[in-house]
């Protein structure tokens, strides 16, 4: 039974706009503190080392796409390892994106309820975001691409504005001495960002929908480089502002916004961070939500994926409520066990599939659309 297509096409640039917040949205607030605990003053180097995991994931996804240009990982898993094993891999992707979507929704709810809407139940905040996300997902891949094309430039402008406004408070001497203990601390600090960079595997699901597939790799590489620059700049800013105190803060970037004070008029611009978080996290949630719906439809063989959008959304809300009892345990999981889950599913499984494809010399049919 054939699966209903993604309901349209997106350009390679729109794919880049979708992938950028998919990697960086939650990393901006959470990863700097996690990285500092391992890398110390060399935390700004860690995203550059972690970039290698992103490149490995992207090149693996691209190599598989070149062999199976019209298929997503769900289809070519069955063609490479057989129907039963392929279904198991598909189910793993389903549970991965279900858990990931729930964790993202919970992160969003905890941040908003903990910093801005203290009297509003977290479940209400999560439910409001999920309703909007479900509407966008039901619109299809073109709607998501256009949403990202509008929102991501706004997020980047707001982020650069924040960095510019806080720059007068930065102390470069807090970066010294650099590499005091060699590169090992910065390599250890790169383990957590590696799991975020591996989220570029979402490109494997988006490449078949591109209007010009030949530019998919180029824009994937541009996305990874831009993400590395953003994360490294974030870590530099946090380090020059807070020094070693950065590792003790849950949301260092939010704390940085509170330092802004210009002429006793422009101060406490936490709303900028709020806008960055909401816009970026919305795109990341809808991408994970969309991929979860697509994986589910393909594994169970539905000809139309739209009817399951709302039921899947309800499951995401349940996952968000159950994923962790509080923010502290959620952050701890994101910096420990979830890191290995992300790398195993997003990098390990694609590498295994590529190895099987190379050994068996298996290829799909030529692309039907270029």
UniProtKB/TrEMBL annotation:
Q: How does it sit in the membrane?
A: Multi-pass membrane protein
Arranged from A to Z, the UniProt key words for this protein are: Germination, Membrane, Transmembrane, Transmembrane helix, Transport
Domain of life, per UniProt, equals: Bacteria
Subcellular location, in the record's words? Membrane
Q: Where are the transmembrane segments?
A: 12-31, 43-64, 84-100, 120-138, 150-170, 219-242, 271-293, 305-324, 330-359
The keyword Membrane is annotated on this UniProt entry? yes
Q: Which residues form a coiled coil?
A: none
Q: Extract the InterPro entries matched here.
A: Spore_GerAB (IPR004761)
Major subcellular site:
membrane
Give the family, as the similarity comment puts it.
Answer: Belongs to the amino acid-polyamine-organocation (APC) superfamily. Spore germination protein (SGP) (TC 2.A.3.9) family.
Quote the PANTHER family the UniProt record gives: SPORE GERMINATION PROTEIN A2
Name of the protein this chain belongs to: Spore germination protein GerKB
Species this chain originates from:
Thermobacillus xylanilyticus
């Amino acid at each position: 039974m054939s699966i209903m297509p993604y309901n349209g096409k997106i350009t390679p640039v729109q794919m880049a706009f979708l992938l950028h917040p998919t990697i960086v949205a939650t990393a901006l607030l959470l990863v700097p503190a996690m990285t500092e605990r391992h890398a110390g003053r060399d935390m700004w180097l860690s995203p550059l080392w972690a970039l290698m995991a992103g490149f490995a994931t992207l090149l693996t996804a691209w190599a598989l796409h070149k062999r199976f240009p019209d298929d997503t990982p769900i289809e070519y898993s069955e063609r490479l390892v057989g129907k039963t094993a392929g279904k198991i891999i598909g189910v793993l992707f389903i549970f991965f994106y279900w858990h990931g979507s729930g964790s993202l929704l919970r992160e969003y709810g905890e941040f908003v309820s903990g910093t801005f809407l203290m009297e509003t139940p977290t479940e209400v905040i999560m439910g409001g975001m999920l309703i909007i996300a479900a509407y966008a997902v039901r619109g299809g891949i073109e709607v998501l691409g256009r949403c990202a094309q509008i929102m991501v430039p706004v997020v980047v402008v707001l982020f650069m504005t924040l960095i510019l406004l806080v720059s007068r408070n930065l102390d470069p001497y807090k970066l010294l001495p650099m590499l005091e203990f060699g590169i090992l601390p910065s390599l250890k600090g790169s383990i957590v960002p590696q799991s975020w960079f591996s989220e570029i595997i979402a490109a494997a699901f988006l490449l078949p929908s591109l209007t010009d597939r030949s530019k998919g790799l180029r824009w994937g590489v541009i996305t990874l480089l831009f993400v590395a620059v953003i994360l490294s700049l974030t870590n530099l800013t946090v380090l020059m502002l807070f020094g070693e105190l950065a590792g003790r803060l849950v949301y260092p970037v939010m704390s940085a916004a509170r330092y802004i004070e210009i002429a006793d008029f422009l101060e406490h611009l936490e709303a900028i961070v709020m806008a960055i978080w909401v816009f970026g996290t919305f795109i990341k949630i809808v991408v994970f939500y969309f991929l979860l719906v697509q994986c589910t439809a393909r594994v169970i063989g539905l000809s139309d994926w739209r009817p399951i959008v709302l039921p899947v959304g309800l499951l995401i809300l349940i996952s968000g409520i159950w994923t962790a009892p509080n923010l502290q345990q959620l952050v701890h999981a994101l910096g420990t066990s979830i890191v290995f889950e992300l790398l195993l599913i997003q990098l390990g499984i694609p590498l295994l599939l590529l190895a099987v494809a190379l050994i068996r010399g298996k290829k799909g049919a030529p692309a039907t659309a270029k």
